[in-house]
Design goal:
The complex is a heterodimer of chains A (about 110) and B (about 110). By secondary structure, chain A is an all-beta fold. Chain A has strands at about 10-15, 20-25, 30-40, 45-50, 55, 60-65, 70-75, 85-90, 105-110. Chain B is built from no helices and eleven strands. Classes of the chains: A mainly beta (about 110), B mainly beta (about 110).
Chain lengths: ~110, ~110
């Protein structure tokens, strides 16, 4: 699986847009980029997934440049409840074998009033 | 409600006393996995199972055992717990290996070994 690098922590204020960037220089052709969110003492939960360009859902947007060596998770107008750890994962999907979900240390986002 | 259920949520035990943490999912998922989470180390995979009677080691399998006799259950067994196994444990399941967006995690089991 491609190794990922994320900032250890970020701070923001309510109502602001937060962008968390993940570097994955050795991403493979068949790798997808997936983001998970984890609140304290809870298991991670899926936020968004993409392969290239831009993906948007009701929670976030994911921007992936043409070279795919990085990606940015964008959280619009964050609130206190968005305080959590965010994980960037890179790997193939639906290959049927060999790969596994590998988490790094994630980015601790703290949102204040 | 589709969910992964772990028990117990909290457990304090003594060194060497065998224990089992249960994990059950009601989504008919083929793939199940155990992770441990420690400060500064993120989530690390202990064991995973691609289907009934098929299990394999993750990144940190030492000191742990698992079994997959039924599709819905994937217990984590610590035959002789040691203090370095004090951690927060998560069970996860997905429709299949590789479904990065389909993972459902349990609520966690906080284990303390004294």
């Amino acid at each position: 699986l491609a190794k990922t690098t994320q900032p250890i922590s970020m701070d923001s204020y309510e109502g602001q847009e937060v962008n968390i960037t993940c570097s994955h220089n050795n991403i493979a052709t068949n790798d997808y980029i997936t983001w998970y969110q984890q609140f304290p003492s809870q298991g991670p939960r899926f936020i968004i997934q993409g392969y290239k360009t831009k993906v948007t859902n009701e929670v976030a947007s994911l921007f992936i440049p043409a070279d795919r060596k990085s990606s940015t998770l964008s959280l619009p107008r964050v609130s206190l409840s968005d305080t959590a750890v965010y994980y960037c994962l890179v790997g193939p999907i639906l290959t049927g074998g060999g790969n596994k979900l590998t988490f790094g240390t994630g980015t601790q986002l703290k949102v204040e009033l | 409600e589709a969910q992964v259920t772990q028990n117990p949520r909290y457990l304090i035990t003594v060194t060497g006393k065998k224990l089992t943490v249960t994990c059950s999912q009601n989504m008919n998922h083929e793939y199940m996995s155990w992770y441990r989470q420690d400060p500064g180390l993120g989530l690390r995979q202990i064991y995973y199972s691609m289907n009934v009677e098929v299990t394999d080691k993750g990144d940190v399998p030492e000191g742990y055992k698992v079994s997959r006799k039924e599709k819905r259950n994937f217990p984590l067994i610590l035959e002789s717990p040691s203090p370095n196994q004090t951690s927060l444990y998560f069970c996860a399941s997905s429709p299949g290996l590789g479904w990065q967006d389909g993972y459902t995690f349990g609520s966690g089991t906080r284990l303390t070994v004294v």
